[in-house]
Amino acid sequence: MMDPRWRPTVNEREFIEQALQSDLRVDGRRPFDFRKLKIAFGREDGSAEVELGETRVMGYVTAQLVQPYKDRPNEGTLAIFTEFSPMADPAFEPGRPGEAAIELGRVIDRGLRESRAVDMESLCVVAGKHVWSVRVDLHILDNEGNLIDAANIAALAALSTFRRPECTVGGDDGQQVTVHDSEVRDPLPLTIHHLPIAVTFAYFGDGNVMVIDPTYKEEAVMGGRMTATINSNGDVCAIQKAGGEGVMSSVIMQCLRIASVKAADITSKIKREVDDYTTEKALQKVKRTPALVAKKVNVPDVTMEESTHSALENQASKAPNDGQQIIKDPPAIPNDGKHEDTKPMLTESNPEVKSVLNSGTAGESDEVKESRSPKSLIDAVKPKHRRKKKQHGNS
């Protein structure tokens, strides 16, 4: 079966090689320039997506309690798994991992586990019985070259934001493990001593021309490749050489010096993004309440007394501007026949007014009118039985 991966023509190969001899690259970069790096974190802890140019890799970290190895009873485990999706590259086939997936997992695992970047002893719960097994899943979303460096950064970013559940040991025999929920106790981060950064070099021609962070087309033309895993302190954690092109020792030493500088820059980038993510998560946990600021409002003091009816009527007659509705007493309407159309409206809304209007005569005395109509707004809103008692008392 023919490999569906892009194969350069003779003219394309010569163009790329001649451009590299003139310190020029197809995408316009210099030989030792990285593509633009972006790191994004998911909603859950331990999830990170890295974009290196157009290469995209997602890392996801999980953990579970397992029984440790017999030769290391007080240490946890760390495993790297890779998944190559056919949507990322037509050359990737679904099912069992191919040679490229196995090689990618081994290079990253060697740089992380062999350099003791993660403290394995801190993952021990009960020596010889229960330890934490940390698993890193790397999903290739888009292959545009240099998958090793992008997958390595995704694994480090996911491990830096991962939080494992806190657990306590108790019981009668002191061997019972209780795993606490994240809402009961805050999860604990992993203890990471340093960040081993993978920097990949591609060699062309007789090995005299080299570039950093090769693209998809450059990988199809290169004669050899070397990946150096170095931390920000300049310590060499691992070196992996692939391809049949030979490289001189002086060129390798030059690559290591360049890799140490690039590793320091990428390490600062990862730490800065992780700090921003941690700060944002901490702010989300804090329950915020709106601040109550006292404002000085010049409002004259109003004495509300039941005996002072005029003050209450003045306050009730002032309609507020915020749309609140205040029910007032209806104005007195003379019984001259000109306001017949307004009479039914008043009688429907207030049956007591209807009885007063129907029974009212021009010859009534002032005392009878005063006993039948409420004196003020307070009397109008009083219950009916109290009002009737007051009328009987006045009579």
UniProtKB/TrEMBL annotation:
InterPro entries given in the database record: ExoRNase_PH_dom1, ExoRNase_PH_dom2, ExoRNase_PH_dom2_sf, Exosome_comp_Rrp42_subfam, PNPase/RNase_PH_dom_sf, Ribosomal_Su5_D2-typ_SF, Rrp45
Example of a GO MF term: mRNA 3'-UTR AU-rich region binding
CDD domains: RNase_PH_RRP45
Compartments, record wording: Cytoplasm; Nucleus
Domain Exoribonuclease phosphorolytic intervals: 33-165, 194-260
Keyword line: Cytoplasm, Nucleus, RNA-binding
Cited Gene3D superfamilies: GHMP Kinase, N-terminal domain (3.30.230.70)
Biased composition (Basic residues): 383-395
GO CC terms: cytoplasmic exosome (RNase complex); nuclear exosome (RNase complex)
Annotated spans, Disordered: 304-395
Compositional bias ranges of the Polar residues kind: 309-324, 347-362
One of the protein's GO biological processes: U5 snRNA 3'-end processing
Entry keyword annotation includes Lipid metabolism: no
Cytoplasm listed as a keyword: yes
Stored Pfam families: RNase_PH (PF01138), RNase_PH_C (PF03725)
Sequence similarity: Belongs to the RNase PH family.
Name of protein: Protein ECERIFERUM 7
Gene name, Swiss-Prot/TrEMBL: LOC125516159
